[in-house]
Amino acid sequence: MFTHAITRLPGENFASGLTTAQLGSPSYPLILAQHAAYVDVLRGLGLEVTVLPALPEHPDAYFVEDPAIVTSKVAVINRPGAPARQGEETSLAAVLAQYRPLERIYHPGTVDGGDVLMVNEHFFIGLSERTNPEGAGQLGSILRRYGHTCETVPVGQGLHLKSSVNWLGDERLIVTRALADYPGFERFEKLLVEEAEAYVANTLWVNGSLLHPTGFPLTRQKLEKLGLPLIELEVSEVRKMDGGLTCMSLRF
Ligand code: CIR
Asked: Could you give the CA distance from residue 151 to residue 208 in angstroms, rounded to a whole number?
């Protein structure tokens, strides 16, 4: 169960962040409202939520999931894979030091937290354009030193590993077709997301509830069969910046 979450407000210049999505220009008032609704949902699920101020020099910094990883035992300060995002991790370190011992990823390693999928004490580390083998190796050594287990997964398509696969509690994953047959996921029951609804693979488990983006009726029907509380959130403006529900918080 999570007791805390760290989030960061999007800044006025958030639209100058990195994106490959061609979904039009995002609205600042709307993303602020969507972010506020997200924070409210986390609070409603019993988490103590820290909302950090925007970092004007890093327009993507509200995607706090990427510059750090927090486990039950340690916080890892990442070296983000996109040069424009390097530096976001600095102010997070001071915050996370209140909760966990800190470890770091060093040059030439790069790791984005969006590539790190936690399933209880086991970690799947995606190798992507953002997380390189050196970074994954450093992260693996840190995690093992703290008693965790881990393995790497080639990401293939999508920005991060968690763009395509997420944990739904127990031994269940939500996963796109591209990763559904990955041997490392064999032991899981899989909720398959069709190509047209790929974005909903970024569904977030929080204390037994599932937060998912609005607008994916086929997958919603499958999620309903799990019998877990479902919370639908509008994240249109976040999606325009290649982000999703998992990206906007660190939960621990
Ligand atoms: C980026 O390209 O880095 C941001 N615009 C989006 C990051 C999304 N983060 C995530 O999936 N964990």
From this structure: 25
Q: 102 CA distance to ligand 1 centroid (A)?
A: 23
Atom of ligand 1 nearest to the CA of 115: 12
Q: In sequence order, what are the beta bridge partners of 52?
A: 8
Structure tokens at 129: 């354009």
Q: Which of 6, 38, 235, 242 to mutate to test the pocket of ligand 1 (most atoms within 8 A of CB)?
A: 242
pTM higher than 0.85, yes or no?
yes
What is the CA(208)–ligand 1 centre distance, in A? Answer: 25
Residues annotated as catalytic are: 160, 247
- Is the CB of 86 inside a 6 Å radius of any atom of ligand 1? no
Any idea what DSSP says for residue 242? Answer: T
8 Å CB contact between 46 and 94: no
Question: What atom in ligand 1 is closest to the CA of residue 114?
Answer: 12
Q: What string of pLDDT tens digits covers the 252 residues of the chain?
A: 999 999 999 999 999 999 999 999 999 999 999 999 999 999 999 999 999 999 999 999 999 999 999 999 999 999 999 999 999 999 999 999 999 999 999 999 999 999 999 999 999 999 999 999 999 999 999 999 999 999 999 998 889 999 999 999 999 999 999 999 999 999 999 999 999 999 999 999 999 999 999 999 999 999 999 999 999 999 999 999 999 999 999 999
| Integer Cα distance of 50 and 56 in angstroms | 18
Q: Which atom of ligand 1 is nearest to the CA of 113?
A: 12
